[in-house]
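Our consortium's second objective concerns turning raw sequence data into structural hypotheses that experimental partners can test. To show how far this objective has progressed, the report includes one record in full. It was chosen at random from the queue rather than selected for favorable results. The single chain below, 291 residues long, was entered without modification.
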Amino acid sequence: NHDEDLEHSFTFIGDAQIGSSGDIDSDGNGWQTTLDRSNEMFPDSYFLLSAGDQIETGSGNPDEYQSYLAPEQMRTQTSAQTLGNHDYAGDEPQALFGQHFNLPNQWEGDPTGGNYWFTQNGVLHLNISTENRDFESHREFIEQTIAEQGDETSWTILTFHRSIYSAGIHAHTDGAEIREAFAPVLAEIEGIDMVLAGHDHSYARTHLMDGTEVASEETTEAPEGHDQVHPEGNELLYITANSSSGSKYYDLVPEATTPWTAVRDQSKTPTTAEVEVGECSITTTTVRVDN
């Protein structure tokens, strides 16, 4: 029972991808540890937001889902899942994904079944499927939902699986394809405050971006060693989460090839993040679960 105040925090994690290492039990243990440590470090978190790839086998392996849902937290705490490429079963939209997760306010205009929205304490959460590459349809969904829900909310956070501004190998493969098509669309949409993503099993935080261009590299010192940025117009900050279970990591690509990154990290250990929502700012704190 959470009050309706705007000030609150939630937990953000990337790909658990249970089964990716080839050892479901090991991946499940890593996932359990991350949830336990998240509870310790972020005891006031209202819910868990996953950027997708909950499991490895899109066509469906019940053992992977059982392991993902085994922790007590997945039965006692609220969570919101993103449709990742490993969750998606192609011609059988969602398959086991749709049987395990109830997505509220699903948008009928997305054939992959992954676009939905919800509101939480004054934040409009937009969640889109990057398995659907019709980016004009995503624009329609985002703009329509902001128009309908934006007056009731103070912030808008967009989450999708395949990061377009990561620091791993996908930055130059599918991430690059989506970036070229989607970043200019996002630059034209008014009202998005931050973008959260996964897929690249490495951590990256961008400079402020305007479409495919770096808009500003300026930061000011904020409390507790955080960097502070002040977006203008439709400039966006993108955060890509590392693995939350340790099932798989991708090495970073050369730094010169990711000019959008302000911070990159691959410490080969699971990470979790707190997103703290306030009246005038959103603060994300990403931490390694081992220390």
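The partners drew two points from this record. The first strand starts at residue 8 and ends at 13. The helical segments are 24-41, 62-69, 73-76, 96-100, 135-149, 174-188. Both points have been shared with the crystallography group to help prioritize constructs.
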